[in-house]
Fold:
Amino acid sequence: MNAETPKVAAAKPEVASTKAEAKVVTAKKIATAKPASKAVSKSVIKAADKKVADVKKVRKEAKIKVVRDSFTMPQSEYQKIADIKEACLKTGMHVKKSEVLRAGLQALTALSAAQLKSALARLDKIQTGRPKKH
Structure:
């Protein structure tokens, strides 16, 4: 190798699973390369740092906010969640209770207004709040 050829540090190759991670990996490779002149090196590093910062901003914006909530439901309906989870386990799919509830919401949103109204009318009205202790 001559003095004008950039040297790349020997390291494990990084594998990116998303486009954002691919940009970070590319930026890291650019930042770790040793160019021939120091002027080029500073501009390359600044450009790489800017790309990394831009990718981090995109990641923060894409994060979905989750909400924690509690609710009351009859024991028989709560048991149905366990039954659905058990049926999923038999097919080899492990699901969480929240995933079952979210799937139910997806199914309800796919209904027409009349179907949704009749499904909600079939529910028994229950008293809200925590059950009284005996």
